[in-house]
Amino acid sequence: MLVTPTRDLRKDHDIILKVINAMDILRTLLKEHVRGNNNTLNTNLLDIVKDTIDFAKNFTDRCHHGKEEHVLFPALNDAGMPKDEGPIAVMIREHKQAREIIDRIDSSVEGYKQGRSSINDILQGIEEYIMLMQHHIFKENNILFNIADMMLAGKGDEINNAYSKIEHDVMQGKHEYYEHVADVLISKLKS
């Protein structure tokens, strides 16, 4: 069976979307706190927010976006897709935006613990991140990855091996841990 150059990236997206769905539930719970004038988050909700931040920084950004930025995008550029404009430039800009939003959420959580930030600050960041990542993943899955699979046909094994190296170096055996986090976040939110 032919391995496509985006096979592993699409699998990553499935895992990332589980966390985005959990963040959507988290967003609803935070809104309920705000509507109820309850300005105190319980430790469980704060821990879940921190889990989503950790996942976004390590699995989504360092590992998944690392695979795209260090393997896929250079391969596409070598095959003729410009890197300073068009799809590659847009995706890199969105990766940067996602990093900035996650850093802001992280800062808001720390500020909340110290009484300098509100639940609304955390909520705003989560809403921005959900919207950005849903659109980003849709564009990659339905446009960029289809183009990549055509432009890089026959290079699937080579490219996926390069992804594996990045994953090994970045995740250092924690891929299964982050898959588990993605699987349990929603159940934690519903309990």
CATH architecture: Up-down Bundle
- Low-pLDDT sequence parts: none
How many E strands? 0
CATH topology: Four Helix Bundle (Hemerythrin (Met), subunit A)
Kindly list the characteristics that best describe this protein:
single chain, 191 residues, mainly alpha, Four Helix Bundle (Hemerythrin (Met), subunit A), 6 helices, 83% helix, elongated
Explain this structure.
This protein is mostly helical and 191 residues long. It has a single domain (7-190), classed as Four Helix Bundle (Hemerythrin (Met), subunit A), CATH 1.20.120.520. Helices cover 83% and strands 0% of the residues. Helix 1 runs antiparallel to helix 4 (119-151), helix 2 (43-78) runs antiparallel to helix 3 (86-113) and helix 2 packs antiparallel against helix 5 (156-171). The model has no long low-confidence stretch (mean pLDDT 94).
Which secondary structure elements does this structure contain, and how are they paired or packed?
Blueprint: H1 7-35, H2 43-78, H3 86-113, H4 119-151, H5 156-171, H6 175-190
Q: Short description, anyone?
A:
The protein is an all-alpha fold and 191 residues long. The chain has helices spanning 7-35, 43-78, 86-113, 119-151, 156-171, 175-190.
